[in-house]
Amino acid sequence: MGLAFPRTDDESAxxxxxxxxxxxxxxxxxxxxxxxxxxxxxxxxxxxxRFDYREVRTPVVEPVEVYTHSLGDTSDIVQKQMYAFExxxxxxxxxxxxxxxxxxxxVAARAQEMQDARLWYLGPMFRxxxxxxxxxxxxxxxxxxxxxxxxxEQDAEVIxxxxxLFEAWGLGEVNFQLNTRGSSEDFPRILEGLRAxxxxxxxxxxxxxxxxxxxxxLRVLDCKVEGxxxxxxxxPPITTWMAPESLAYFDKVRxxxxxxxxxxxxxxxxxxxxxxxxxxIWEVTSxxxxxxDALSGGGRYRMxxxxxxxxxxxxxxxxxxxxxxxxxxxxxxxxxxxxxxVLVSMNDAxxxxxLLLAARLRAAGLRVRxxxxxxxxxxxxxxxxxxxxxxxxxLGESEVLAGTAQVKNMASGEQxxxxxxxxxxxxx
Length: 428
Ligand code: HAM
Hints:
Blueprint: H1 33-50, E1 54-55, E2 61-63, H2 64-71, H3 76-81, E3 84-86, E4 92-95, H4 100-108, E5 118-126, E6 138-147, H5 152-169, E7 175-180, H6 186-198, H7 207-215, H8 226-233, H9 244-260, E8 265-266, E9 277-285, E10 294-305, E11 307-317, H10 318-324, H11 327-333, E12 340-345, H12 348-363, E13 367-370, H13 377-386, E14 391-395, H14 397-402, E15 404-409, E16 415-419, H15 423-427
Parallel strand pairs: 1-5, 7-8, 12-13, 12-14
Antiparallel strand pairs: 2-4, 3-4, 5-6, 6-11, 7-9, 9-10, 10-11, 14-15, 15-16
Helix pairs in contact: 1-5, 5-9
The structure holds histidyl-adenosine monophosphate.
């Protein structure tokens, strides 16, 4: 088929080549950024192990019902942001827009074994949004799901796990904002109370919120339109319509966080955009971010995946963490890579010797590279500079004959002739 390569319409790609580009809102990840990702992942694994969480990797493509049933038909994700399509076999599938529902599909199929599972995941998620700083169409979430029935102390422990993660990453100042959505029994009362409180001002709300009053009135509370914000500010908090047990549950979450030393504030307007939440919900923001300031969101949830599954968890937007990470931390990530040794060979005999030397150096834990395309010594030296070699080992004709090597320190320019047998010890 004579298909042309797609060209990007993203100016920032900054390339004049005809090579195909990634789709808008999606990025290639490579050095030096990838070293930051590796650092974050390594620290995350340590923290997860300390809290006894196990990694789970579920598919990126899921049956569409896994998401439509659990996130709610009126959620923005289901209505506007899901990449859903029909397979050749006629099945409706979607690229996962978040991790929780897919992981709950996995959990529900192993109900007995997973009744108190502690799970975490890291992987790409997909949402059809208008790309901007901190908002991508393919982004990565690190998520945690703690399976089990409602417990305020469990909610607090999961929030504390998140705080431990941010600390291990060296993220600097973050702000934990908490609220409660109450229990499922509270829910009808909250909706009714909110609708009644908003009714006299209905005409002053934006068009979206007028629609939300009927479909998903909670979302009026986090509308970004100034006129709606002013109206919402004067409403009674949703806790007004909750049972005393729900308020006591939330108080216990807060006092446990205080005891664990996790600073937080209550944001009475926080509601979260997904239908599966009940009781505790939270978001973490960073002033280091711009308009898209949410580093992560989480909460307690309950959903029907053939059987009911419940738990508490959060999802962290990794791209946003990297945006918010102090430059000093990012710079330190690159230093974890050992210095490079490049082996330069004059001729075939030297190259043969260098291949064996490379094997010995690598066995000793060094990072070693050589050009095997048969280029001149001069071209090999130039390549060593391009690769940022710390040391170059040069085998010329006389060195091969004498059983020695020239070892050059690239930073100081200092060069030494040493017996081949001593190269490993010298460089190590
Ligand atoms: P969420 O709030 O939709 O929650 O997403 C969590 C985080 O993912 C956000 O706070 C943000 O950092 C990041 N994120 C979301 N959309 C984008 C985007 N388009 N580009 C870049 N980053 C983005 C959830 O997904 C829930 N599953 C969290 C959860 C887990 N609740 C319970 N367990």
